[in-house]
Amino acid sequence: MSLKSRFTIGFSALATVAALAAAGCGSSSPSAPTVAADVTITMVADRGNQSYAPNPTTMRVGQTVAWKNSDTTAHDATQDASRFATGTISAGATSSPLTMSTAGTFAYHCTIHPGMVGSLVVQ
Questions:
Q1: N or C: which end of the chain has fewer CB within 10 A?
Q2: pTM above 0.70, yes or no
Q3: What is the pLDDT of residues 32-59, one digit of tens each?
């Protein structure tokens, strides 16, 4: 094997290792892995009790729920008694899934647009 061939193979292996190491860092990765929720509620727009769809949303204890923002502006979903909050969800983005571990009916709203209201029924 020529010196040039050995150098090419060695450089190629080094480049592969560097690429794998950079991919494993994760903290500066522009796209985090998405985890699918059992139930997804869509943020439609600032339309009162028609802002979230479906509304009300029904799910079972132990299932996960996420909110997908289909509007052109940022929104959130915060339970009225502050038991859960999605944080701000940019236009086109989806919140991290939340596990609902308690049965009940939970009214929620957008803290950015308080007229946006919804209800989550956990059975």
A1: N
A2: yes
A3: 456 799 999 999 999 999 999 999 999 9
Count how many domains the chain has: 1
Which domain range does residue 106 map to?
39-122
Tokens 């007229």 — which residue? 115
- CATH label of the domain that carries residue 69: 2.60.40.420
Degrees (nearest 5) of the Cα angle 45, 51, 65? 110
The Cα angle at residue 122 between residues 120 and 123, in degrees rounded to 5:
145
Q: Rounded CA gap, 26 and 21, in Å? A: 10
pLDDT, one tens digit per residue, over 82-119 is 999 999 999 999 999 999 999 999 999 999 999 999 99
SS3 28: coil
